[in-house]
Amino acid sequence: MLDIIALILVIIGGINWGSIGIFQFDLVAWIFGGQAALVSRIIYTLVGIAALWCISLLFRDNRFTHTDE
Length: 69
Known about the structure:
The chain is 67% helix and 0% strand. It is mainly alpha-helical.
């Protein structure tokens, strides 16, 4: 369950970075009242922690990534 939550947060972060890169529009800051707003900073922090967690997905032995030949 933690993996799914982390992936969702990383996807949210990726969409936000895409909107910044393409449109120069920070969606998280717009929704929560600016980049310095407490809620925005919490969201940014959670996305960063989720990204660090997702690094572990690359090194795990997962049944969905292995095929039995």
